[in-house]
## 1
Amino acid sequence: MFDLEKREKSILLVLLIILLIGLAFTLYQKRAVHVDVKSDGFTDYAEDPSSRTLKININESDAAGLMELKGVGRILAERIIEYRSTNGNFRSVEELKKVKGVGQKLYEKIKDGVSID
C-alpha cells in the first residue's frame, strides 16, 4: 500500500509511540482528577469566586480528599475513615479530636477547612 523506506518507517513508528504516550498521559491525568476530587465531599460556602473556600466533608470524603487538609497525611486520613466506619458519621467537627493523632494543635489548624454536611 505505502512504499516507505526503512528510515521513514522508523520515524513513523517513533511518532506513533510519542502519540500513544501523550494519549496515555492525558487519560491518566483525567482519571486522577476524577478519582482524587469528590464533588460531594466538598461544600462551597463562598459566593465570590476570588475568595472561594471549599470545606472538606469529613463524613463523605475519601483519603485523598482528607489529605488535602494541611497536616493530614495518608495514615491520619485512614484513621479518620476508620473512626467514621467504626463510630458512624461525625456529629460535630470537634469530634475529630477523638481520632488518634488529631490533637488540639492540629484540630485548630484544620477545623475551618472541614464540615460534616
## 2
Amino acid sequence: MRLRIAAFFLVPLLALAAAPAPAPGAAPGPGGPAAELSTVDAAILGVIEGVTEFLPISSTGHLIVATRFLGLESEVPLKDAAGQPLWHKPPSPKHPEGIPLTLKLAADTYNVVLQFGAIAAVALLYWTPLWSMARGLFGLDPAGRRLLVHVMIAFLPAAVVGFLAHDWIDRHLFSVGAVIVAQVAGAGLMFYAEAWRRRRLAAAPAAATDAPMTAKSALLIGGLQCVAMWPGTSRSMMTIVGGYFAGLNPRRAAEFSFLLGFVTLSAASCYKALKSGGAVIQVFGWSHALLGGAVAAVTAAVCVRFLVHWLTRHGLAVFAWYRLALAAVLGVVFYL
C-alpha cells in the first residue's frame, strides 16, 4: 500500500519534471512558458516548501522571502511571443480592465501549488490513519470515523475564514514586514506554550502525559489554525500549540497537525490551483512546476520524521529561537 501511494504521487511528477525546459531567452511557443524559472530556482523553492511546511517556522513566510531574493516579484504585465498581453482574468463586466498576468502572481500561485508535494509526503508516511479515516467515512472503522470527525471539526474554521478572507490576505499581508511580525509573535507564543506544557507535566505527570481528543479540543486547534493565515505565523506551529493546550503530548499534537494539514493543504491547494493554477503553467510551464512539487515531497517526508523525533525529546524552543534569529536577519537585510 505504501509503495502504491508513493508511486501514485511521485512517479508522474518525476517523469513530467524530466521533460525538456525551454532554452533561456527563447520566445515562448503556443502554450509554452512566458517567463523563465530555472531548474535551480524550482528546486530551491521545492526544498524550502518541503523543509518549512511542517516545521513550526512558516513555509509561506520563507517562500515570500525566497521569491523576493530570486527576483520573482515583478508586477509588469506579461506578453506572449506575438506581443499580445497575457491575462489572468480577461476584461469582463466584473473586471472591465482585466487582471494582467504577472510574474509575481504566477510565483505566488506556484508557492501554494508546491504544497501538493507536502501533501504527498503525509499521504506516504501516514497512509494507515488516512486509510482508517476513509474506512470510517463508510462506517467500516469506528476509530477512523472518530478521527475523521475531529479532523473535519478542526478544518471547518479555517475553511470558512479562508474562503471569506483569502483575497484580502493576498492583497495586504504577503510582505516581508508581515512575515517579520508573525515570526516574532509566533516565537513568543511557542516559548509560552512550551513552558506551560512543562509546568503542567511537572505538576501532574500522569494526567499531563496525554489527553483524549474531543470535539472541543479539535475546535480549539482549528480556531488557532485560522491565525496561521497571517503569512509567517505557521500553520504547523499554531496547530501543534493548539494540541499542547488541548492536553496532547508532543507526538500526538504533531501527528494530528499533519493529518489536519493533509486536509487543509489539499483544500487550499486545489482552490488556488483551480482559481489561478493556469497562471503557473502559462508563465513557467509544466516541467519546473512538477519538479518543485517532487522536491517538496521528498524533503517534507524527511522533515516530518525529524519533527516528531525532535518534539518528543526537546520540544518547541529551538524553533522559537530560529524564528527570532530569522526575524532579526530579515529586519537588517530589508529595513536597515
## 3
Amino acid sequence: MAESSKTSRWRSNFRPRRSGLREEDLINANEYLYEALSANKRDGLRLAVRARWVALAIIAMLIPYLNFTWEALYYEALLVGFALIGWAQLRVGRVAQSRQELLLIFCDLALMTFVIVVPNPFHHEIWPTAFQYEFAGFSYFYVLLASATMAYSWRTVVAFGTWTTGLWLGALTLVVLFGTEIPELSQKMAVALTGYDRMLAFLDPNNPQIPIRVQEIVVFLIVAGILALNGNRTNRLIIRQAEVARERANLARHFPPNIVDQMAKRHQPLGDVRSQVVAVMFVDIVGFTRIAERQSAADVVALLREFHGRMENAVFNQHGTLDKFLGDGLMATFGTPDPGAHDASNALRCARTMLADIDQWNSERMAAGAEEIAISIGLHYGMVVLGDIGSARRLEYAVLGDTVNVASRLEQLTRSLGVRMAMSDDLAKAIHDEPADDVDTLLSGLGNVGAQTVRGRDEPIVVWTL
C-alpha cells in the first residue's frame, strides 16, 4: 500500500509541473528512481565537463594555428572562462530543477555568442561587425550542445536550443541595427564583382547574411530536437531500470540476496499457486506488552527495529524467506520459493542462531542497564499452499495451510511448557532424512516431551523442545 501511495504522489506531483521537477518530489516518489537519476546525472556531468576541458584544450592549440599573433591571447582567456563555467556546473549539478545550473548554461551560451559576434578588441585591423560571421564560429555551439546531452535532461536540451536561438537571433538583430559598417568596402566589392550580384551578396563584408544565419539556427534546432528525443528515451530506460531496482528491493525484504538474484533470472512468475513441503517458523517476544508499557513509544520502536534486524539476518543467513513481521514477532519459511536439500536443517539452525543472538544481545542490554528480552520459537515441517493472494488491486505472496497453523500453535505452546523453542517431530524426521553432516549437533539438547495437544488439531503431535 505504501508503494501505491508513492506512485500516486509521483503522478500528482509531476503531472502539472513538467518543466521543473523538484528534488524532494523525486525522493518522495521513488527513492530508487532518484538514486538512478542522481548517478546518471553525476556520471554524465563529470563526463561532460571532462569532455569540455579536452575540447577547450584542443581549441586552445588550434587558435594559434589559425591566428599566430598576440591577439590570440584574448580568445585563450575566454577559453579559461568556459573552463571555469564547466567547473561551476560540476559543483552545483544535481538532479531535478536547479536555477544555478540553468544560469550557468545561459552564461555558457551568452559567452559563446559574445565571442562569435563581437570583434576582438585587440585586433589591429578594423572590419565591419558583420564580417565576424565569416569565421563560421557558430559551429562551436555544437561543442556545448554535445556536452549538454551527456549531463542534462531532454527538457534542458530543448531549452538549450531555444536559448541559443534567442541569443543568436538577438545578436543578429543588434548587428543589423547597430553594427559598424565600412561602406567603401562594399563599393569596391561591387566594382570588382559587377554582373555577379549573388556572389556580391555572399561576399559583401557588410552583409550579415541573414538567410545563412537563420539556416544555422534551424539546423541547430533540428539537431537539438533529435538529441532531446534520444535523451527522453534514455530517461525512460533509467526509469525502467529504477523500477527493476525497486522490485528487487521489495524481494530483498523477503528473500536472502542469493535467492533474489536467482529469482531475478527466472522466467516463470513468482506467484504461481502451488503446493510444496516447507519448514515454517514463528518467533515472538515473550511478554512484549509488559515491556512496552514501561517504555516510551520511541524506545519501543527502537527495540523492535533492533529485534527485527537481528532476526532477519538470522533468517537470510540460513537461506530462509522472511514471510512477514507480526508486530513483536515474525514468520519465516525455509524452502520457498523453491525447495532445497537442507530446508529442515536450515530452519533448526536458524532457530539456534536466533537464540544465541538473543543471548548475546541480552548481555549487551544488561551491561547498558536495560532489561532482558526473551523469545519463543515454533517450528513445523509439512505441506503448504503458496502463491499470490489478494485482489486485483493488491497482491501479496503468501504461505497458507495447516503447517503454518501448527507452527504458530507450537510457538504459543512454549509458554505452557516453559521452554524457548518447540519443534514438531515432523521437522526432526525431515532433518534426519536430509544430507547434513551436523544432524547430531543440531538435535543435541532437544528433549522429546511426547504427544502434545495443539489447538486446531484433532490429533496430538509429538513435540521436541529446547
## 4
Amino acid sequence: MTPRRSTPIPPGPGQESVWDYPRPPRVEPVSKSIEIRLGGTVIARTTSSVRVLETSHPPVYYIPADDFVPGALRPTQGASWCEFKGRASYFDLVSGDTVVDHAAWTYETPAQGFEALKGRVAVYPGRVDSCSIDGETVTAQAGDFYGGWITRDIVGPFKGEPGTLGW
C-alpha cells in the first residue's frame, strides 16, 4: 500500500503552502534578518541568506559562512547526497564549551542550478538554542534528516512527520 499524504492546509493571507513549492527545488534570495543562537550566544547573523523551497518541505535557509562568528563552524566527518543539490559536507557547531555534532551542512560544489548555495551553510534549527527570522523563533521540521524552518507564514502538512516517509 502506498502511503498517502494528508490534505494540504489552505494558506491564509500572507501564508505559503509547502505544497505549492516546486520539485525540483528552487533557490531564492532572502533579505530578512536571520539569527542563530547556540550556548546562549549569537553564532550567526545575516540579511543575505537564500532559501531552498521544495514540495512538502518547509524552507531551508542557507547563511553565508562568513556571517558565522569565527570558530563557530568546525568541519567534521561524513557526507550525504541530494539528488538535486549534490554532495553535502557537515560541520559541528561550536559556541564556548557547547559543541553540537553534525548540526550544519554545506554544498562545497553544488550541482548546476544550485550555485547560489556555494559558500553558504544550513543549520538544523532543532539542534541549536534557536533560529529566528525577523525576530520570529522558528520551529524545526520533524525528523532527524530534514532541516526545514517552520514559521507562522508556512503551512503544511510537512514531510518528516511520522507516516510521511513515502511522500
